[in-house]
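TOPIC: backbone geometry
CONTENTS: sequence, structure tokens:
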Amino acid sequence: MIFPKCILFAIMSQEIRVRFAPSPTGYLHVGGARTALFNWLFAKHHGGKFILRIEDTDRQRSTEAAIKAIFQGMEWLGMEWDEGPKIGGAYGPYFQTERLATYKEYIEKLLTTGKAYYCFCTPEELDQQRKEAAERKEAPRYNGKCRKLTDQEIETLLKSGKPYVIRFRLPQEGTTVIHDLVKGDVSFENELLDDFVIMKSDGFPTYNFAAVVDDSLMKITHVIRGEDHISNTPRQILLYEALGLPMPQFGHIPMILGTDRSRLSKRHGATSVIEYRDLGYLPEAMVNYLARLGWSHGDQEIFSREQLIELFSLDRVAKTGAIFDTEKLKWLNSLYIRQSLPERIYDLAMPFLEKAFETYNKLDKEKTGIEYIMKVIQILQDRLVLIADISYLAQYFFDDHIEYDPQAKEKYFTNPKAKEYLERIKAELEKLSGFTKPEIEAAFKGLAKEMGIKLGEIIHPTRLALTGRSESPGIYDVVEILGKEKVTARLQAALETM
């Protein structure tokens, strides 16, 4: 159906109410998080309400662990909900398993008006129908066998205790048109749809039916979801009409694709929001990146949360799939890390450091240890892509067992003059009283000038001796943080290998 202008105006004049309604059969994945974010931004932009509803009617696959993971993922991303689990609201309950009596009431309404019917077909019969359709090279669809049962036949079958489902009696002609807020008008011929199940044999409603009842009773004005749901929409529109319920507007956002343009999956990397948190991504980087997956505002790439709320609109949502580029996400994350306060990076980095090095547990309990770690974080912060990188980058600050990079060792320790350079800089550093960065820098530069050599000829073998690597933050910072005792010990150890 096409929405008349008067209905669209009436909907737009209401308070905007949108929902995110995940099924707790797994963790909150990237696609679900992006859908939740678009709904959240839409509600905040219009001063409306964002509702969280848990669609847990799949009793075999729904788990408490998945429910907790959904909460954790949304809370980590900062998408607080205005109504839903934990906080309640005027239109609850917000778990579908707690709304079964309501669904049965609406099922009865459809049965009474003849817009739904009992179906007693067995799984074996349905399988046979699908096989026959496949042989005819047709799409599998219910053949309507039980649609023609008389009241007496139904009563007899019910009394016999034969299992049944409830099917919706679809109109067999006409066209259903979705006026989609993203895709424009999308048409479906009713004759190509089949009489789908609205209540299963266990008494639980199916997705399409429960979603319509809940969205109506929760006064949802806009249903914003992935385009993989667009085939469900004509069925839902027909259910709204059959039940005489006010209809929301629909907007179907493009799918998230991997770099090979197939649907995003595990083979493209982590897909759970919690996985990204545990890898060391910052929530503001993830929110910024998810917002740009299928939505844009000119060429702007970096958005604060406030800017996203101010600028977000569905007319800027793309009609084609969005490519999930992990490298771009990493770049964005590194940018947000650099802009963060060192104190925050310290809090985020400590779990990774504690896991990597037992000594961190001890250091965290001593003021001098905290100051030491803060110094390390401050000089490494600009080099972090993920918070987890701190474990590798900071290793030589906490582990005195230095393994030299073979290529760097060949390059810098085999120089005939390298041993002399290390002996001389060791002697110069041992003379220092305060061991501050300015003193250290003066010692290096003074020695290079005295020996008539380039500064790098001293710095490169010294860096390798202290870190085991050819790259590090500024050598003067490294020397100062390590302290005289560790520096002289590591220089001596390096000299003994030459």
